[in-house]
Amino acid sequence: MGSNSNGALREAVHEIHDYIRENLYFNRSDLSIRGKRYNSALLLSIMTALRKGKTLIIGEPGLGKTTSAEYVCSLLYRVPLGTIWGSEVAGHPEQTEEKIIGRPDLGRLNLGEEVVVWSHFAMLPVKIVDEINRLPETKQSMILDGVDRGNWEYLNDAIINREYCLFATANYQDRGTNTIIAPLVDRFDLMVESKHPGANLAYIIGTRGPATSSLRDEELEGEFHRILAERTPYEVRMEKLEALCERFGEFIRSTANIRSLSRAERQAVRAQMDEIPFDLDSNAFLRMVISELSFCHRFGQKRSNESCEEGCHFTGYVCNGIRNCISNRFPISVRSMAQAVAWFLGDQAVGVEHLKAVLPYTLAHRLQWKEELVAQREKEPRNDPLPIYMAKECVKDMHRRYMEQGPQIKNALAVACQVAEGAAMEPVQGDHPLFWEIRRDLGEEVSEP
Amino acid sequence: MKNPFQDFGSLSVERKELPLERIVRAREEVMERMVHGYLKLVEEEVKDLVWLVEHSRVVKAYSAAVKSIRELQYDADDIEEFCSELDSSNKIPYMISGPAGIYLSALVNHAQEDRIVLPLKDYQRTFHFVGYRLPDGKTLILQGDVGDFVGAGLSGGRLVVEGSVGNWCGAGMMKGEIQVMENSGQNTGEWMRGGEIHVEGRIRSLGKTLFGGRIFQRGKLVVPQETDSEI
């Protein structure tokens, strides 16, 4: 893997990352990728914003969950901080659809016209839901479609966001929180924790105070508000906003001496990321991971209403420790984030190291562990919240298995390719669920081991 | 439907081979060459599928057999399997006992092992000329009955037949020992020049022309006959 020749955009993203790390969001590095150390919450938030992704940021109150997302969105999307604050949705039980998505234009309604006044949250490409788990389940469902497809509907009207990213924050469980509904959880590409920065960095934060002035311009924020409040078609307002974003970009270049990205540049970044291929090892490793999270020899696949039988041959694999089946959104999230990280590091292909870095964060919120396994693990010494810790341990286990069986698995996939193209060969047999999945895909009747 | 394994199409397939498969393949190659050598010998020596026992033809056949196995790596197990092939395999369209025995003898004489046991009692067919020119230092044990000219031209080896032998046993043998656990046929020891033949059962007849060597029956010397003067 070598350096990508088209590095100007990457350099700009690195500048943004370094600027936030040095000036806005102080925290320790807790993620190592190919020898370089990063803060997982910051790095993966930047990747989320670039990839039009969705991230759930968990953590104790006041540890920078929302503000880190705000900084990232402001710099990468060229939106003033004040405008972002004005578009955020606060999670609380009394929250309404009218505040989240839109409301009728009452003046026009008096005239007999049904016109929707869209919320800034629905219109802006950067979306932040603060304390999402304080929303009751019914209100979480309300934002499900919009979160998934960028499609916001109210009365008989609808808008579709061409470009958007979503950050939702969640405090740890207390009396005021609800469970985030499973379909909504699955729509998050990543879950990261915004950790306490430690006594020494926290001391510096205390002495410095909020350092947000470089991302604020009240005059521009007023213009953003004026355009968002216009009664012109949504697309027209978005084009006008882009011009304002350009101006804000010039503003932060002059105040913070930092380059930000235009819409076209963000599109170019995504195109570059999409072109990064998976090498054969990462390809095989991801297939192996998916198979462990979805396989059941007894019932054909994992199902959350069917439990594993005692003494199953696959007791040592992840499938035996979890209750649910991984969804098809999981490989999409992994692929997208692994490509983003590889692009950020200047690598020409996604390798196993990139996958190992992003997998725990794409899995942590999606895995429903069996209670006995949680009980076994929760008291172990660790630096991460339990779901991320368990996901990291699970990825370590799967990677160890790949190190042991990788060549055989790649060979099995190569043989399967030839068999699928009509070659008269026997599929390779092995002990890992992936070998069984391969044989199933080749139309074999696979009996119990 | 799209081939879900397409990404791995460029990867060369490594065919995993069990050690047993490798061993079997090596044995098959050896056997193939042995059978080929035998068929070539038969083709050269037996044009009309009739083979006459003449001294010059025997020598010539043996030379041809030795030539064909010169570079072959084989062991006693391969020889045993070749016997089995001669007895029942479809790979060998015709089995002629004389050349077969001579070829078998060439294999035995040039094998690495000093002691070879061939379970001939399990076979339907009879081999002639087995043990032909068995050299010094070699022991060949034949389990079961064998055909004619067994141990002919024996050249110092030890041949044990755990059964009966046909006619002309030890014909023209030079030195060494033949031990027959049961009976021997006619002309036993004909043209014998040295060595010993021990027969535990009945000797149908002794050779008319003997130039040397000794023949024992049930431990008793019968050739040369002891004269009274010597007693």
Tell me what you see in this structure.
The complex is a heterodimer of chains A (449) and B (231). Chain A has 449 residues and is α/β, with parallel strands linked by helices. Helix content of chain A is 51%, strand content 9%. Chain A contains 20 helices and 11 strands. Chain A has helices at residues 8-24, 40-50, 65-77, 81-87, 97-100, 106-110, 120-123, 137-142, 144-149, 182-187, 199-208, 218-229, 234-256, 263-274, 280-294, 329-344, 352-363, 371-377, 386-420, 433-441, and strands at residues 31-33, 36-38, 54-58, 89-90, 102-104, 116-118, 126-130, 151-154, 157-160, 165-170, 190-193. In chain A, strands 4-7-10-3-11 form a 5-stranded parallel beta sheet. The model of chain A is unreliable at 1-5 (pLDDT under 50). A 7-stranded mixed beta sheet of chain B has the order 1-2-3-4-5-6-7. In chain B, β6 (214-217) and β7 (220-223) form a beta hairpin. In chain B, α1 packs antiparallel against α2 (55-68), α1 (19-45) packs across α3 (76-88) and α3 (76-88) packs antiparallel against α4. The chains are: A alpha/beta (449), B alpha/beta (231). At the A-B interface, α15 and α19 of A face loops of B.
